[in-house]
């Protein structure tokens, strides 16, 4: 049973920070690329960031560039998304998802076969 479980969401003020976690079970995530996605009510799903298991190279969407950082801790079988300088428009349900091993990751949702349940991030005063 391959599973991903997100955690770390919550309510934060604009300008604040949160760290999301994506914990893998049933497989070793260092052989999978991991993507972060988000979807707000009434809006389409957006690719946020991804990290390659091969060399740790990362991709960031323009709307989070310079504010978010993706990282991997193989010992804990967990991928993180550090979110700084949060804005109200970052409010969304955030999902992590796993794609097959490749040297370059992608945030094309269809390439990802295992998805977490999502964690809600609310940025509001």
Your description of this structure?
The radius of gyration is 13 Å and the shape is globular. Helix content is 0%, strand content 50%. The chain contains no helices and 11 strands. A hairpin with a 6-residue loop joins strand 5 and strand 6. Strands 2, 4, 5, 6, 9, 10 and 11 form a 7-stranded mixed sheet that branches. It starts with a strand and ends with a strand. The mean pLDDT is 94.
List keywords for this structure.
125 residues, mainly beta, 7-stranded mixed beta sheet, 4-stranded antiparallel beta sheet
| Sequence stretches where pLDDT stays below 50 over 5 or more residues | none
- What series of H and E elements makes up the topology? EEEEEEEEEEE
Q: What is the approximate shape?
A: globular
Helical content (DSSP H or I, runs of 4+): under 10%
Strand content: over 45%
Helix-strand category: mainly beta
Mean pLDDT reading: 94
Largest sheet: 7 strands, mixed
SS summary, helix count: 0
The overall strand count is 11
Rg, rounded, reads 13 Å
What is the secondary structure topology, with strand pairs?
Layout: E1 3-7, E2 10-12, E3 18-25, E4 32-39, E5 46-51, E6 58-60, E7 68-73, E8 78-83, E9 92-100, E10 112-115, E11 119-123
Parallel strand pairs: 2-11
Antiparallel strand pairs: 1-3, 3-8, 4-5, 4-9, 5-6, 7-8, 9-10, 9-11
């Amino acid at each position: 049973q391959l599973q991903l479980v997100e955690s770390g969401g919550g309510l934060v003020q604009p300008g604040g920070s949160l760290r999301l976690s994506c914990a893998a079970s049933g497989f070793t995530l260092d052989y999978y690329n991991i993507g972060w996605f988000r979807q707000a009510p009434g809006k389409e799903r957006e690719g946020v960031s991804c990290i390659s298991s091969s060399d740790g190279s990362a991709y960031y969407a323009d709307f989070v560039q310079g504010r978010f950082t993706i990282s991997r801790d193989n010992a804990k079988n967990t991928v993180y998304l550090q979110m700084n300088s949060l804005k109200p428009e970052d409010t969304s349900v955030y999902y992590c998802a796993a794609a097959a091993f490749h040297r370059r990751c992608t945030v094309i949702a269809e390439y990802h076969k295992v998805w977490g349940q999502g964690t809600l991030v609310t940025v509001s005063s």
